[in-house]
Design a protein that fits this description.
single chain, alpha+beta, four-stranded antiparallel sheet, 2 helices, Immunoglobulin-like, 12 strands
Amino acid sequence: MKKLALLLLGLFIYASNVNAQVDDRAVIPVAVTLNSILRLNVTSGGNIEFNFNTLNDYDSGIQTGAPYQTKFNVASSVNWDVFMYAEDANLIGTDEIGVANIMTLDNIGYHITSDGTIGANVDLAFDAAAPGPLTNVTTTILVGYDGATSNAGDINQNSFTIHWRCGTQEGSMNATSILSQTIAADRYATNVFLLLQPN
């Protein structure tokens, strides 16, 4: 009986020692911060100038070509859209001091092409067959996310060209030639803004 009592006492002490052990722990916080990247960069064609020097220019307008192209790209970690608008309601004459000459914005037209590798994921607002008119109303020119395919990517993926023209009476541009509008000789100008926003 004494041996049994000693055995039970030994087991009790062993069990108490096992239960009395304390775990030692260290905490390592791990976090990931994702900052949104949303950048638009005009790489060429940041200043477009149409010079009407012949009657044919006045009658038929100046078609798009290398001197009348604005190239830009988008680098983004999120889905995005691009908007465009003119600063003024009309092109404003700048050379005739004291004379308020104006030309309507719709004499300027444009279409957009994609030069990047994921251009198929971006809806272009106007194509070569039906150029759109310049306006001072904020217009969506690139719709990037269709709810299924992301357009987030780098500048090689999201690269675009705006093809400008003036007085060509195409698409929804002004349907009257510059010659028929009898616009005074002057230099007409406005600023055009591109706006990149997350979608």
